[in-house]
Design a protein that fits this description.
By secondary structure, the chain is of the alpha/beta class. The chain has 2 domains: 128 residues, Winged helix-like DNA-binding domain superfamily/Winged helix DNA-binding domain (Arc Repressor Mutant, subunit A, Orthogonal Bundle), CATH 1.10.10.10; 172 residues, Vaccinia Virus protein VP39 (Rossmann fold), CATH 3.40.50.150. The strands form 2 sheets. Strands 5-4-3-6-7-9-8 form a 7-stranded mixed β-sheet, sandwiched between helices. The protein has a two-stranded antiparallel ribbon with strand order 1-2. Helix 10 links the parallel strand 4 and strand 5. The N and C termini lie far apart (90 Å). The N terminus is likely disordered.
Amino acid sequence: MISYYPDTRMIRSASPVFGQLAALADPTRSRMLLLLEQQALSVSEVCAVMQLPQSTASRHLKVLVDEGWAQARSEGASRLYRIARLDAAARSIWDTVRAEVAETAAGQQDTQRLRTVLEVRRDKAAAFFSAAAGAWERVRMELFGSNAEVLPLLALLEPDLVVGDLGCGTGQMARTLAPFVGRVIGVDASAAMLQMARARSPAGVELRAGRLEALPIADGELDVALMFLVLHYVVDPAQVLKEAARALKPGGRLLVVDMMPHDREELRETMGHVWSGFAAEQLNEWLAAASLEHMQHLALPVDARAKGPALFAVRSTKPRGVS
């Protein structure tokens, strides 16, 4: 059988550029590359768009990959093909060929059929979400864990921050923060808690023994101070907030997360709570007395699985003019 298309292997032996030119000289391959520039496609999708047998599509795709025009990557059980990163010389050649191919009737019909193929992809995704909507949160938690929505937000923190985890306990918060900030200083009065924290803490976490009423932290050492479910254990919250303010740099921020007022008296008996939550007015009064400002009080969403009282978060700032 006589082939009217050049054998790229013979031409390539003379010069690589001739092999590249020969690959695009075939109108089927140039149409195919135009598609792969618009979207990464599987062999079956190329067949659907160009109405080719799979063996023919695979043969042409192999030539495009061998000559450096296309590249393939595995995506699950499929292989997706797309246009390769072209150097300046190859880009110039392709720009010329593309301008011609895009104007042909076949090239324009390929682009129209490509839209249909991509709609099939979207319909598959839409069908999945329609069927899984009721169970989607459970499915996502099983796949990625319960903190998948929250943990990535830590990457928004400035990487050179010094953060104080005040009342750090076993160091869970400090461990979570450590990869995203410059340094975490954890403070706790419990020797048992600190022992567990030290056994688990990575580099970047410095643990110090001390009371929150007299923090073992220098004036202005912290960019951020955190008190997560700590304040209801202290006898003198006003003094603790003043100490946190002292340890903050001018412009530093304090974040307090604690319980809203509640009548769960058993928490005092079983867990040693000193305070049954805090009203916003009381907390704002203490923060103002600590020379903190811009208080923002937010009720946190209630987790239906949680058995404790509802929580709030209060964010405040140390004025830049205050040392």
